[in-house]
Design a protein that fits this description.
- With about 220 residues, the protein is α+β, with helices and mostly antiparallel strands.
- It folds into 2 domains: about 160 residues, Pnp Oxidase, Chain A (Roll); about 45 residues, no CATH class.
- It has 6 helices and 9 strands, in the order ααββββαββαβααββ.
- The strands form 2 sheets. A 7-stranded antiparallel β-sheet has the order 2-1-5-6-7-4-3.
- β1 and β2 form a beta hairpin.
- The protein is elongated.
Length: about 220
């Protein structure tokens, strides 16, 4: 079966909003892009939390990205995870162009603002703590605390939100199994986690395809 480029793009799109939410809740670093005073994009890695269909980030109350947002509130936000690099020799011992990568990525275009409502600011900061320190060991932030005055919270409301993933779903079953065997044999640090995402399980009888995840 020959897959056209247009069909491939469709196959790689994440169609489940729930999967997007789950992915964003797991990832610790996102990148926000704003436009500086000279018209150049400025990209900064940030801690973030996705709450109530919006991205929240905490920041120092002063800085270039704050100035950028005050001047132009249109921003980009991106989160990605490289699952597994697939060396070219998986397919051919000489052809370097066959190297590939399995991945998940989310790209947002939206409007950014600085949160001024103390209750919303508290919600965002506690959401960040719950995400990054799930084991607890702290007192929840209260809206009456003075600490809120010393930190900025940036909110991004998405205008568009697109996700892509590549975990072998574009391949025939036999080719996907062959790829999984090669990943297992290469045994990178991420191999087992990648195989699980691909729908494989390592059993006493070897590698078994137990699911065909659809995002």
């Amino acid at each position: 079966m020959k897959i056209t480029l247009l069909q491939l793009v469709g196959i790689l799109q994440i169609k489940s909003y729930q999967k997007i939410q789950e992915f964003l809740s797991q990832e610790h670093v996102g990148r926000v892009s704003s436009i500086d005073e000279n018209g150049y994009p400025q990209i900064i890695p940030m801690n973030f939390v996705f709450l109530n269909d919006s991205v929240y980030m905490h920041s120092h109350i002063k800085g270039e990205k704050i100035d950028n947002i005050n001047r132009n509130n249109k921003v980009g936000f991106e989160v990605d995870r490289e699952l597994e690099f697939l060396p070219s020799y998986f397919e051919d011992p000489k052809n370097a162009s066959l190297a590939d990568t399995l991945y998940i990525s989310i790209v947002i275009k939206g409007k950014a603002s600085l949160v001024t409502d103390r209750e919303e600011k508290t919600l965002a900061l506690n959401g960040l703590m719950k995400k990054y320190q799930p084991e607890g060991g702290y007192e929840p932030i209260q809206s009456t605390m003075r600490v809120l005055d010393g930190v900025a919270v940036i909110k991004v409301i998405p205008d568009t939100l697109h996700g892509k993933y590549k975990i072998g779903q574009h391949m025939r079953a036999e080719s996907r199994i062959d790829l999984a065997e090669k990943i297992l044999k290469k045994n990178s640090l991420t191999a087992k986690a990648t195989l699980k995402i691909m729908g494989f399980e390592i059993t006493e009888n070897g590698l078994q395809m137990v699911d065909e995840p659809v995002w």
